[in-house]
Amino acid sequence: MTAAPTTSTDYAALARDIKRWARELGFADVGIAGTDLGDDELHLKRWLDAGHHGEMDYMARHGDKRSRPGELEPGTVRVITVRMDYVPPGTRNAWNVLEDAEAGYVARYALGRDYHKLMRHRLQKLATRIHDAIGDFGYRAFVDSAPVLEKALARNAGLGWIGKHTVLINRRAGSYFFLGELYTDLPLPIDEPASAHCGSCRRCIDICPTQAIIAPYKLDARRCISYLTIELRGSIPEELRAPMGNRIFGCDDCQLICPWNKFAQDATEPDFAPRHQLDGAKLVELFAWSEQAFLQRTEGMAIRRTGYEGWLRNIAVALGNAPTSPDVLASLQSRANDASPIVREHVAWALARHNG
């Protein structure tokens, strides 16, 4: 990170310009935070010590750099945090998909283009605008790509509070948005942190299909359907398969039930529009995808993260939870001898469910 400008810079005016430029680049909101995350560091350590991160070993790597921005990127004194809404208009109603047991439910954030590169490219454009205005300065852009406590930083930047389901909530826009950060050495004025407004509500805790929210603000990822369908490699614990229902990539229940999402804003980015009708495609159709078709159709999408084997594993579980029909049975039987032992195991479980 290069040194901050030595010329006389009006940082208050620059902060106002940065926020305007960020919105012009398509970000829904932007805020500026300092680097003190002491309380969040303790919360993270307790979560890791309890083993609630499961197989996500990357959460424990890099020492304290995740909670100490100045150690991750030396010279950092401020974090510019942005958010971008991700549910486009016209997307099939989420509750309707969940109620259609023959359809596969994909978390709304993953229906279109992967957001990582798109947002990082926009953050780079923001950095270029800052450079054009003041000259060389130190920065580094992150979009879920490094050890960053993004929700805590966004809270401190005034973009929302961390709800009881551990997702960031914005009073004016709910929680359906992505976050990105620009670590910088510019001593910009910081914004007021957001205050919490969950009150006594516990709808997210009560609705969680696998009871992964073990207490307010405490998530055991090992039980979370998003973890099970995306991060977990290998077998899904049997006792958690039936509660998964038809969720084949991620889970939105805790957000769908949140009263604050009545204020959710439609995405303005066309690339977030659902691809291949994945906002409600039939399970038997998705289960028939070859590996080549999977790789081709998920190119540039977050769904790639689960891998083809994980994709089939997840759909096998959903087919096991679907109503018994000739099509469902034939679909499962078509992969009863799949090359993957993981797929075979979950297909056998699903067939046993239908055979009573």
From TrEMBL:
User: Per UniProt, what is one GO molecular function of this protein?
Assistant: cobalamin binding
Any Gene Ontology CC annotation:
cytoplasm
Binding residue positions for cob(II)alamin: 66, 144, 168, 179, 226, 251-252
Q: What class of enzyme is it?
A: oxidoreductase
- Using the UniProt record, give the first listed, main subcellular location: cytoplasm
* Catalytic activity annotation: epoxyqueuosine(34) in tRNA + AH2 = queuosine(34) in tRNA + A + H2O
Q: How is the cofactor bound?
A: Binds 2 [4Fe-4S] clusters per monomer.
Q: Where in the cell is it found?
A: Cytoplasm
The protein's UniProt keywords, in alphabetical order, are: 4Fe-4S, Cobalamin, Cobalt, Cytoplasm, Iron, Iron-sulfur, Metal-binding, Oxidoreductase, Queuosine biosynthesis, tRNA processing
Q: Which InterPro entries match?
A: 4Fe4S_Fe-S-bd, 4Fe4S_Fe_S_CS, QueG, QueG_DUF1730
Task: Note whether Amino-acid biosynthesis occurs among the keywords.
Answer: no
Where [4Fe-4S] cluster 2 is bound, by residue?
208, 224, 251, 254
Tell me the cofactors it needs.
Answer: [4Fe-4S] cluster; cob(II)alamin
What is the E.C. number? 1.17.99.6
Q: Which SUPFAM superfamilies match?
A: 4Fe-4S ferredoxins (SSF54862)
**Active-site residues, Swiss-Prot/TrEMBL:** 144 (proton donor)
* Subunit structure, interactors included: Monomer.
HAMAP family in the cross-refs: QueG
Regarding protein family, the annotation reads:
Belongs to the QueG family.
What the protein does comes down to:
Catalyzes the conversion of epoxyqueuosine (oQ) to queuosine (Q), which is a hypermodified base found in the wobble positions of tRNA(Asp), tRNA(Asn), tRNA(His) and tRNA(Tyr).
Protein name as it appears in the record: Epoxyqueuosine reductase
Per the UniProt record, the source organism is Dyella jiangningensis
